[in-house]
From TrEMBL:
Belongs to the glycosyl hydrolase 20 family. It catalyses: Hydrolysis of terminal non-reducing N-acetyl-D-hexosamine residues in N-acetyl-beta-D-hexosaminides. It comes from the Bacteria. Residues 18-135 form the Beta-hexosaminidase bacterial type N-terminal domain. The keyword Hydrolase applies. The active site is at residue 313. This is beta-N-acetylhexosaminidase. Pfam families: Glyco_hydro_20, Glyco_hydro_20b. GO terms for molecular function: beta-N-acetylhexosaminidase activity. It comes from Kutzneria buriramensis. The keyword Hydrolase applies. GO terms for biological process: carbohydrate metabolic process; glycosaminoglycan metabolic process.
């Protein structure tokens, strides 16, 4: 193969359009045309995925061949992947299957926005720019949380969301499966968790100070087979699904299904409101055993090494000093940490590690191997990393994507702080005061998409994109290789057309479309 010469009949975008931005690019000039005779083959499974999406988009057969035009191969001693495009062929070398898949995503990007469609849309001269791309991710944990408890995301929407993560080379989907407002995970031993806990009588609309709801029943749940399908679908795209069952707070849906889990003498409904709820799990042995059984079924469905147990926002007003004393604890708040440790130790017996929101670092000794999700800021993450615990950074001040995207009056249900695309892009997951060996404890970061005010896939699209595109570059690309002006150009000129082709109803950079606004629905801007 020769790096010189070769032109297709029309120019195509070059390596400067890639997102996330690669570690190193050497554009040599020239193009490699793709035709009916172009072949695609190699060892990694990424070849099969790439053939499927490109055959659909281009209409080209891209047949296998002993000596293919586009060749993939696994080279274990590489770090990341290396793409070399010559005028007569492409050689992709990758450290492993995951790196090969990332390379396949880059090749799809290089073919332009039309390569993201599911069928050919007309005559086209397909070509790849000649040159070299060397790339590897900055962080191992490049994630997004999707809250399916507050508003249920049907399975097809969940699979689509996984495709969007994979297109951005994100590799963790933190799936928030339970909360006060709904239980979405089928537990065969306890069917009422979904029969009762999976449905509520209505939902609060926006942020209000009264208990008025829309009166419209809402709910849904995933069967265990549904979730096995989701896990397998994600795994093929090198996305690990990290499930969350939130305990001991955010549990009113479970208490509605099984009142003996709670602390009151009267039944409760699945909660139709938003916020922090005083109705937490009790600390009886039977309740802990109940949740051991729940997590037994969860780990049978989800192979993720890390399982999230929540642990956030746990009022203790329904617990008593007598309950704490019975557990050998000096104070009532220590029951919070005690409960978390019971389940974390049970997960450890399954060979899994517990992840919890940063409150679990304040309520007694952390369980061994625990991972801290630092959401209330960076301080808890810094302290945990210095103490030798792994950390995922997700501070609400930076990467909560349900927060409003501007201070415009027409932002739909404006809650939280302003997080513009630029704000998200300029975030760095390594806090400035974290140094030395503790830096290696930061596994990475995730952007959180909470759905109190996102009641459909369309609303999730609006909140997540294009800010999640900016976040993808934050966790992939070294800070020294990032440039806001360059990203803004690539986003507007090249990446938004890719999102258009994928059918993503993102927020336009200039502000919402009229149909994306929610006039008259109150928010709570901060």
């Amino acid at each position: 193969m020769d790096l010189k010469g070769g032109l297709a009949s029309r120019p195509v975008p070059g390596f400067e359009t890639l997102l996330p931005r690669p570690s190193r690019v050497d554009a040599t000039g020239g193009l490699l045309p793709l035709t009916e005779n172009t072949t695609l083959d190699g060892d990694p499974a990424a070849v099969t995925w790439l053939r499927e999406v490109l055959v659909a988009a281009t209409g080209l057969p891209l047949r296998p061949a002993a000596d293919p035009t586009i060749r993939f191969r696994i080279v274990p001693w590489l770090s990341g992947h290396l793409i070399r495009v010559f005028p007569d062929g492409v050689l992709v070398e990758a450290q492993d299957e995951e790196s090969a898949f990332h390379a396949a995503q880059s090749i799809r990007q290089l073919l332009g926005p039309a390569a993201f469609r599911r069928a050919p849309i007309g005559p086209a001269d397909w070509a790849l720019p000649c040159g070299v791309v060397e790339d590897r991710p900055r962080f191992a944990w490049r994630g997004a949380l999707l809250d399916v408890a507050r508003h249920f995301m049907p399975k097809d929407g969940l699979l689509r969301f996984i495709d969007l993560l994979a297109a951005h080379k994100l590799n963790r989907l933190h799936l928030h499966l339970t909360d006060d407002q709904g239980w979405r995970f089928e537990v065969k031993r306890y069917p009422k968790l979904t029969e009762v806990g999976g449905w509520r009588e209505g939902s609060r609309v926006g942020v209000r100070t009264d208990d008025v709801t829309d009166g419209r029943p809402h709910g849904g749940f995933y069967t265990q087979d549904d979730l096995r399908e989701v896990v397998a679908y994600a795994a093929r795209r090198h996305v690990v699904v990290v499930p969350e069952i939130d305990i001991p707070g955010h549990s009113q849906a479970a208490i509605a299904a099984y009142p003996e889990l709670g602390n009151l003498t009267y039944p409760l409904p699945v909660w139709p409101l938003w916020g922090v709820n005083e109705n937490v799990l009790n600390t009886d042995d039977s309740t802990v055993d109940f949740y051991r059984h729940v997590f037994d079924e969860l780990v049978d469905v989800f192979p993720s090494e890390i399982i999230c147990v929540g642990g956030d926002e746990v009022p203790t007003v329904q617990w008593t000093a007598e309950q704490a004393s019975r557990r050998g604890l000096a104070t009532v708040p220590e029951l919070h940490g005690w409960f978390i440790r019971q389940i974390a130790e049970h997960l450890g017996a399954h060979g899994r590690r517990a992840m919890g929101w940063d409150e679990i670092a304040e309520v007694g000794p952390l369980p061994g191997g625990a991972v801290i999700a630092s959401w209330r800021g960076e301080r808890a993450g810094v302290d945990a990393a210095r103490a030798g615990f792994d950390v995922v950074m997700c501070p609400e001040q930076k990467v909560y994507l349900d927060h409003r995207e501007s201070d415009r009056r027409d932002e739909p249900i404006p809650v939280g702080m302003v997080h513009t695309v630029s704000d998200v892009y300029e975030y760095d997951p390594i806090p400035a005061d974290l140094t030395g060996d503790a830096v290696r404890r930061v596994l990475g970061a995730q952007a959180n998409v909470w759905t109190e005010h996102l009641d459909s896939p369309r609303r999730v699209d609006y909140a997540a994109f294009p800010r999640l595109s900016a976040f993808a570059e934050v966790v992939w690309t070294e800070r020294s290789n990032r440039d806001l002006a360059d990203f803004t150009r690539r986003l507007a000129d090249e990446h938004l057309p890719r999102l258009d082709a994928l059918g993503v109803e993102y927020r336009p950079l200039a502000g919402p479309h009229p149909w994306q606004t929610r006039p008259g629905v109150p928010g709570r801007p901060r």
